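Exam revision sheet. Question 4 asks you to relate a sequence to its structure. Input first:
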Amino acid sequence: MRESTACPIFDGDCPGRITSSGGRGRMLRMLHTLVLGTAIGMAAAQELPMVDITLVQTDVDRYDVRVRPDGPFNGLFHSYLFTLRWSADATATGLDLDPTMDMEDISLYPLLSGTFVTSNGYKYGAYTAESIVSLSSVGQSWEGGEEVTIATVQVLGGIADLQIANDDWTHANNGDYYLSLNGYERQGEIYSTSTDLSAIGTAVDQALRCTMEGDRLKVDLVMGEARMLDYQLVDMRGRVIREGVFAVPEGRSTRTMDIGRPAAGTYAFQVRAEEWGQSTRVNIIH
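Answer key, structure tokens:
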């Protein structure tokens, strides 16, 4: 039988073997550092909150995507993935997701991953977002047990019975709910809330929707009270393209405004008043 020429660590006659006590010491220190770093990383991850997610209907064709950490956090909300599912025979033709203003501040924009897919009587749309801006750097923080709205969903062309899904399709297509804090996987559960649809019309005291009509921006608003609003049109690099002030009455109203002719692309239209603000996405095509 031929004798093995394999070279085990710290032993054996092979080129480059570690034979000195100094070499052994350096190797042991490297291994110790690796193990210690791994242990510190695991401890750091355990100190981060777990984050649950839910979908809340706020109007017949609008929803909020909300997360709920089980502890405080002000670090890097690095990324998320969730899949929206609805009946294939629903009248909706698509979905439009916008970040909230807090999420815009950390550049966390939901994007459709691929295309909508129909399978087993449902339609699916997987949405992802990623950021490198920490909450603390923009003066934000989360409290344990409190919901944070990370995106709004506008159902297009009709209505849809939306849900955040973890099912056989999402398992097979990498669409299960995922969330990362400080680079660590911290997704919790998908929880449900009940909504009294008969009360939606009065429960939502403000809403914002924008569309382009030629070179003019059409702004549809629902306000719980008359007020003055500051507005900004912001590009995806955070540059303010247009800004100003306008008055809106209580209830539903529509106004159009001349925004010039900015370059084609996706913009955020933001409105703010004292202790309140909303944002929606506008696609400009020439």
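Marking note for examiners. The chain is about 15% helix and 45% strand.
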